[in-house]
TrEMBL record:
<dbReference type="InterPro" id="IPR055377">
    <property type="entry name" value="GH3_M"/>
</dbReference>
<feature type="domain" description="GH3 middle">
    <location>
        <begin position="205"/>
        <end position="283"/>
    </location>
</feature>
<dbReference type="InterPro" id="IPR055378">
    <property type="entry name" value="GH3_C"/>
</dbReference>
<dbReference type="Pfam" id="PF23571">
    <property type="entry name" value="GH3_M"/>
</dbReference>
<protein>
    <recommendedName>
        <fullName>GH3 auxin-responsive promoter</fullName>
    </recommendedName>
</protein>
<dbReference type="InterPro" id="IPR004993">
    <property type="entry name" value="GH3"/>
</dbReference>
<feature type="domain" description="GH3 C-terminal">
    <location>
        <begin position="314"/>
        <end position="418"/>
    </location>
</feature>
<dbReference type="Pfam" id="PF03321">
    <property type="entry name" value="GH3"/>
</dbReference>
<comment type="similarity">
    <text>Belongs to the IAA-amido conjugating enzyme family.</text>
</comment>
<dbReference type="Pfam" id="PF23572">
    <property type="entry name" value="GH3_C"/>
</dbReference>
<dbReference type="GO" id="GO:0005737">
    <property type="term" value="C:cytoplasm"/>
</dbReference>
<keyword id="KW-0436">Ligase</keyword>
<dbReference type="GO" id="GO:0016881">
    <property type="term" value="F:acid-amino acid ligase activity"/>
</dbReference>
Length: 463
């Protein structure tokens, strides 16, 4: 069961057709001849341009063939989480289709209708009852293993920005290993995971030397690589990278990219023969910025992780999140849009303001020294969490898909700057909460005092 989706083809101003590499592969004769028979999804359901109809029909195909499934997955872990949320909303209707042996009337795509008629051709009340019993359970923990009992692993990319979905996937998969097979990007397939059964946090990729010409820009703490615009940064070849060092990946590819910065920061963790192995650390660009303070994605992700652990004590699950910056007031402040649910339920929970306000504080504690110093100096306002109603991030995905994004390659943007998307999020806000404490006050005060003492010590020696 591999959930795959195509993206509509568009034309360049010159008239040349443009489409994603995944779409090109899925519509190719090679996929139809060699791979389509390995999937539960009929090829017509994959090629359906309506993402909702495609998702529904692919889920129905997988349920009808539940005993044949040995692997469940998607390109990204986020897509699989979205599929489970979709299933939460539609499992009763799917069971009704299986019970009656008839497809829902709102499915209008001819390809989907024709392909489903081959396997949904008679009533199957026994299967419908079995799925209903599974879904009516008090908790959906291990739901994937229960629905598809022959599943051996979950196949999806779970590193980088996808790492935040690992706890939710672990909850749903019932102890199945999460396999992240490869390191790929728009620039090409760059590396493979030679130990696919390793834990997601331990996943490392071996770069495949003949996929591109790889070069590396050393990256040091405190943005040392940018400390002087006049300084020339030495580019390191593949054979000269050092164990434990972080690098920004640069590629020259067969299709014509020349010394192209991919934007990923990788850390050398070992070697396979002479090929270096890397762990994905973070994306390079800081994406939340107020005045001169910039917050990197990995810092925010760490804060979110700590806050998720905190709200988890109250049987609350963070479905998804994104961020934005509000500079309409002085001082400006960071905003997090959160969608929460109760464990074992898809409904929005009753919220205690003190819990969410404490979550604001926990997130701020994980942000960098400059941010916390700016908060103490009132240069940045308290962090705000805006709670949104159930289904908001599904609606955000639908909005992105309507603008040309692909469902299979969609990742919730971690920073929203598009005004129209912000309006959609704000229209679904059900509560606003602010941090009530200054982050890291004692720690920060100690650091500042230590700096002052150090300065006095230097001055006392007349230096």
């Amino acid at each position: 069961m591999q959930l795959l989706f195509v993206r509509p083809e568009i034309k360049a101003p010159s008239g040349l057709p443009m489409r994603s590499i995944l779409t090109s592969y899925l519509i190719s004769k090679n996929f139809e001849k060699h791979e389509s028979s390995l999937h539960t999804s009929r090829i017509a359901t994959i090629l359906c341009s309506d993402s909702k109809q495609s998702m529904y029909c692919q889920m129905l195909c997988a349920l009808l063939q539940r005993n044949e499934v040995v692997c469940v997955g998607s390109v990204f872990g986020s897509t699989l989480v979205q599929a489970i949320r979709f299933f939460e909303d539609y499992w009763k209707e799917l069971c009704s289709n299986i019970r009656r042996g008839q497809l829902s009337a709102w499915i209008s795509d001819t390809g989907c209708i024709n392909s489903l008629s081959m396997i949904l051709n008679k009533p199957n009340p026994e299967l419908a009852d079995l799925i209903e019993d599974i879904c009516n359970a008090k908790s959906w923990e291990g739901i994937i293993k229960k629905l598809w009992p022959g599943t051996k692993c979950i196949d999806a990319i779970g590193t980088g920005s996808m790492a935040q979905y690992i706890p939710m996937l672990e909850f749903y998969c019932g102890g199945l290993p999460l396999v992240s097979k490869y390191y790929a990007s728009s620039e090409g397939l760059l590396g493979i995971n030679l130990k696919p059964l390793s834990k997601p946090c331990d996943t490392c990729y071996t770069l495949v030397p003949n996929m591109a010409y790889f070069e590396f820009l050393p990256v040091h703490e405190n943005n040392e690589e940018e400390r002087s615009k006049k300084e020339v940064i030495e580019v390191v070849d593949l054979v000269n990278v050092k164990l434990g060092q972080c690098y920004e990946l640069v590629v020259t590819t067969f299709i014509g990219l020349y010394r192209y910065k991919v934007g990923d920061i990788l850390k050398v963790t070992g070697y396979h023969n002479n090929a270096p192995q890397f762990q994905f650390v973070r994306r390079k660009d800081a994406f939340l910025s107020i005045d001169s303070e910039k917050t990197a994605e990995d810092e925010l992700a760490e804060g979110i992780l700590q806050a998720k652990l905190f709200v988890g004590q109250f049987q609350l699950q963070l479905v998804d999140y994104t961020s934005a910056v509000d500079i309409s007031l002085i001082p400006g402040h960071c905003i997090l849009f959160w969608e929460l649910k109760m464990e074992g339920s898809s409904k929005s929970p009753e919220l205690s303001p003190s819990i969410i306000e404490e979550s604001c504080y926990i997130v701020e504690q994980s942000l960098n020294f400059v941010y916390r110093a700016s908060r103490m100096g009132n240069l940045i306002g308290p962090l705000e969490i805006r709670m949104v109603k159930h289904g908001t991030f599904d609606a955000l995905m639908d909005f992105s898909v309507s603008k040309g994004s692909s469902v299979s390659q969609y990742k919730t943007p971690r920073c929203i700057k598009l005004e129209e998307a912000l309006k959609k999020l704000n229209s679904r806000v059900v509560g606003r909460y602010f941090s009530q404490q200054l982050p890291g006050y004692k720690t920060l005060k100690w650091k500042l005092n230590k700096s002052v003492m150090h300065a006095r010590k230097i001055n006392s020696f007349g230096d």
